[in-house]
Amino acid sequence: MGFLSAFLFLPHEIKGYGATEASPACSLPQSDVRTFRSGSVGVLVASTECKVLDPQSGRELGPNQDGELCFRGCQIFKGYLNNPEATAAAIDKEGWFHSGDIGHYDEDQNIYVIDRIKEFIKYKGFQVAPAELEGLLLTHHAVADVAVVGRPDEDAGELPMAFIVLKPGQTATETEIANFLAAKVAPIKRLRGGVEIAQEIPKTASGKILRRVLSEELRKRALQLKKSKL
Known about the structure:
Layout: H1 3-7, E1 17-18, E2 25-28, E3 43-44, E4 48-53, E5 60-61, E6 67-73, H2 84-90, E7 97-105, E8 111-116, E9 121-123, E10 126-128, H3 130-137, E11 143-153, E12 157-166, H4 174-182, E13 195-197, H5 211-228
Parallel strand pairs: 12-13
Antiparallel strand pairs: 1-2, 2-3, 4-5, 4-6, 6-7, 7-8, 9-10, 11-12
């Protein structure tokens, strides 16, 4: 909903959040721009509830704790046509729609979306959000674009790995980039899978990173390496 910033002559982009299953809005920015919070997708629309669940335990979480965003309200759909299994997976018995998105809310009820659960990197039983690491890497002065994916590993499951596009005229080594991130994150989020300098990041026409393309390339490399050792 970034178009609202231009329409309202705002100095920053404002966003809302929704889904086809939510007809389509769950949250919208507040009308008072003084309450704007950078990175937020606004507050809940009328007659809508939100809770955040730990993806692994199902335990309900509090403010500023990342988990799966779940919504309940009159705008939430009743189910997928002729697909009871998908419906049961999306809507629980209490009517909560499990969005599949990871995020949190703050003390002022502003909602933040971090990443998709299915895109999480599984490292030794821990779940690492690629979007979080990408956001941090983009703060490096030499980084123009980035994509983080899981590199297959027999012991750990997956290792976080970054594909980096450098800004024109800028230089940075793979080690420099890895150390830059390591200083900002917990040990489980370090780029143990390595850093690779790339010419471009594969994306859809709308600008969404095609992680599956990069993941498939890494799987092919892992398979070739395994065959070469036979």
